[in-house]
Amino acid sequence: AAPIHWSLLSGDAETGVSIMRMEAGLDTGPVFTQAACPILRGITGGELHDGLAMLGAMLLQATLPEIVAGRLAPQPQNDALATYAPKLNKADLELDWNRSALELERQVLAFNPWPVAHTRLRDSMLRIWRAAADEEESATAPPGTVLREEPSGIVVATGSGVLRLTEVQLPGGKPLPVDAFLNARRLAGQRLGAA
């Protein structure tokens, strides 16, 4: 399961942590306490993971003495409110340029730092580490077309809006901000994702 990734992919406004009693089923035990964490736009899966780890540690530190002293009883979970976060597969990582710029932004950020979203660039795979959606700008070019190159990003047409790629990586290379990436190559007019 990949709950952090799926929270970002789904566009959830918040996620959180729970202190619960373990049972045989996956996440089925009664809950002692919970804490919510807002999902801010632009946060990566790694940043959210680290924030939730810190929140969980603080919540456990505050809750454990109450549990041990018998002052806090767990409450059964409401199964109607449960959501399922499936395992990730390779297809989840491939950018589908027909989707909206906002959905693609979420996908890129959810998979940073692992397993990293990607798209096809000619005969190789281009990993996308950071990107930002611009839903105000529209494009008449087919989705996946590189509209222009700017120091602040590679602007790509999507199904709705444009996506500005700001950090990318070619096979065998390291992640680069686009200004450094564009020093040695030009992409304007090319179509990403096309075989």
Can you characterise this structure?
By secondary structure, this protein is an alpha+beta fold. The chain folds into two domains: 3-81, Rossmann fold, CATH 3.40.50.170; 92-181, Formyl transferase, C-terminal domain (Methionyl-tRNA Fmet Formyltransferase, Chain A, domain 2). The protein is 25% helix and 26% strand. The protein contains five helices and eight strands. The protein has helices at residues 3-9, 45-68, 90-93, 101-110, 178-181; strands at 14-20, 31-38, 117-121, 124-134, 146-150, 153-157, 162-169, 176-177. Strands 3, 4, 5, 6, 7 and 8 form a six-stranded antiparallel beta sheet that branches. A hairpin with a 4-residue loop joins strand 6 and strand 7 (162-169). Helix 1 (3-9) packs antiparallel against helix 4 (101-110). The longest helix is centred in the N-terminal third of the chain and has 24 residues, at 45-68. The chain is elongated and about 65 Å long. The two termini are 30 Å apart. The model has no long low-confidence stretch (mean pLDDT 95).
